[in-house]
Amino acid sequence: MLKFLKSLQFIFRPSFWVISLAYNKGWDKRLNKLLDDKCDVKMNNRTAILRSESDEIEIWVSNYPYAFGYWYQQNNLRPSRLTIERLATYIAENGK
Fold this sequence. Notes:
single chain, globular, alpha+beta, 3 strands
């Protein structure tokens, strides 16, 4: 229920209405696990490398929110809108 209530915020945010890639549940879970593990973030020009003890991936962090958080190395996978918000906050607080 809480997830549903949090998702309602996107009704009032037109920038989230059109996202350029299709949602992928497996990618969303993997990205959330990295964020839960308090991964390290290394910023590049348009990408970020997220590194934990068990995983390392490079994701796209330009074009917020349209393509933000997609894993372009694996068939253009996109996380959920809630995960995009969570990732943006995480990168703003921990990005180097």
